[in-house]
Amino acid sequence: MEKILVLDFGGQYNQLIARRVRDNNVYAEILPYTTPIEEIKAKNYKGIIFTGGPNSVFDMSSPHYTKDILEIGVPVLGICYGCQLIAWMADGKVETAPVSEYGKIEITSKTSPIFKDVPEKNIVWMSHTDYISEAPNGFEIVAVTDDCPCAAMQNTEKKLYAVQFHPEVTHSEYGNIMLRNFLYEVCGCSGDWVMDNFIDNTVAKLKEQIGDKNVILGLSGGVDSSVAAGLLSRAVGKQLTCVFVDQGLMRKDEGDFVEKTFTTLFDMNFVRVNCGEQFLAKLKGVTDPEQKRKIIGTEFFNVFWSEIRKQQDKGFFAQGTIYPDCIESGKGDAAVIKTHHNRVNVPDDVEFLGVIEPLADLFKDEVRKVGEKLGIPKELVWRQPFPGPGLGVRIIGELTADKIKILQEADWVLRDEMAKNGYEKNLAQFFCVLPNVMTVGVMGDHRTYDHLIGIRAVTTDDFMTADWAKIPYDILAKVSNRITNEVAHVNRVVYDITSKPPGTVEWE
Ligand code: XMP
User: What's the pLDDT tens digit per position in 340-396?
Assistant: First the structure.
């Protein structure tokens, strides 16, 4: 398989660069700038992209790399900091720019393989305070702006290219064409990264690895474990056992839907453990959010491992880990390994033949594409994020069966209404919360004293920050009307108009 290396110098867009490359059907992987050159040489990359970074190349404490990388015969594209780094490595001149450029800026470009099919004048996204004041020997300047004498440069003989702007962000009008040009015109890629190939290759690899042994997968009903289950089922059918722990804190009918999907559409052994009552007993009287999370998490694995201990034969343990969980970040002096939140610690007395992570090379959007191709229903493939502790963190205070039921019903009405009016595509996440607040209302001639439901809906790309969604009033009115009419014991609905920060997406 053709591979592009995204060498990470700590820029905020490193994953985006890799995703854009993959969108152009070429596999890209991210490694930190601390990766030794011998390791890079051994991997036979078709090309290397240096990412941006928050630093100055002439600050020696900032990330650098041996300039030998420019001599190994592999094409390089430097972006922003990566562009300045190439200039610095090749003995050009990098200085603090008299005028920093930030935002959409027009460049004027010359003929270059990178600018094939790109108009001479076009808009790019800039974000830099240093600039290249003199291109190194052997390099030709191929783009300028009013304030930047070297917005792009190239050494065609050595196949080295560098752009001061960010082609990976959509604000750069022709950025994707430029990246594509690097991949196809410069690196000579043919574009073999397509999801059909991925499925065929992965299924073949899984068959070989698993042989006639068994595999166990913990299925949560989320996107990643569902797609992992679909792939494994295609590879080994009944040798796969999926264990689905239903803690009673999923959305309305969700457990049944997961069971129906995997027992009717896929060939596998499906074990559903219904343990809602057991969870509620453990959570009795508990109101502190952190303690609730802890109990739910601990109990979940207690149930899961005790189910695994019942399995007769020792087999492989599969997990739905995806690529962003595996990437080592190039930020800071040493490569910091991100917390692998999807990876699970196996207890000492549970033994497996090995761990299988069939999605470890995929970004979320690729996981979804694979899921669709495997025939997993849209409701699962496009499922919005759902917290591990489920509705447990959407009911403030103590959990009871009655409160769970009220919240499930209200949340179902919200989802149903959003699906009917098609507004859900505008939202990253939306759900109901039950704040455990009783208010006075009036229904017919009667005074009521019933529950309050909160609606939370946000837009965001990364969930680190989020905006409260400006849902049209008429939709909110309809949802409120339906919830108070259709859900027993709810007499009031409020809408959460808090962004993150200062709020979090979840209420607990
Ligand atoms: P917050 O509330 O931290 O949520 O702004 C950000 C995103 O993370 C999800 N979330 C969780 N996911 N286990 C999870 O798997 C959790 O304990 C958890 N808490 C929050 C939340 O739904 C949102 O998408």
Answer: 445 678 899 999 999 999 999 999 999 999 999 999 999 999 999 999 999 999 999
Residue range 27-44: mean pLDDT, rounded: 97
Whole-Å CA distances, 76 to 47, 275, 276, 412? 6, 55, 55, 51
Neighbour count for residue 393 (Cβ, 10 Å):
19
Q: What is the pTM of this model?
A: 0.90
- Active site annotation includes 446: no
How far is Cα 279 from Cα 307, in angstroms, rounded to an integer?
Answer: 16
Q: What is the distance in A from the centroid of ligand 1 to the CA of 428?
A: 12
Considering 2, 80, 101, 307, which one is annotated as catalytic? 80
* Residues forming a β-bridge with 455: 432, 495
CB 113 near ligand 1, within 6 Å: no
Measured CA to CA, the distance from residue 23 to residue 19 in angstroms comes to 6
CA–centroid distance for 111 within its chain: 37
3-state secondary structure string, 279-311?
HHHHHCCCCCHHHHHHHHHHHHHHHHHHHHHCC
- Residue pLDDT, tens place only, 397-420: 999 999 999 999 999 999 999 999
Above 90 in pLDDT, residue 334? no
pLDDT band at 228 (very low <50, low <70, confident <90, very high): very high
Joined together, the tokens standing for residue 488 give 């027993």
Strand partners, 125: 104
Tell me the residue type at 142. V
**Nearest by Cα to 371 from 507, 204, 243, 225:** 225
- The reply to whether ligand 1 has any atom less than 6 angstroms from the CB of 460 is no
* Ligand 1: nearest atom to the Cα of 341: 15
* Tens digit of each residue's pLDDT (9 = 90 or more) over 124-134: 999 999 999 99
Does any ligand 1 atom lie closer than 6 A to the CB of residue 429?
yes
Is 505 near ligand 1, meaning CB less than 6 Å away?
yes
CA-nearest residue for atom 21, ligand 1, is 387
Active site residue 168: yes
Whole-angstrom CA distances from 378 to 372, 382, 384 are 7, 6, 11
Q: In terms of Cα–Cα distance, which of 504, 228, 479, 260 is closest to 387?
A: 504
Task: Report CA(387)–ligand 1 centroid distance (Å).
Answer: 5
- 80 an active-site residue? yes
Give residue 163's pLDDT. Answer: 98
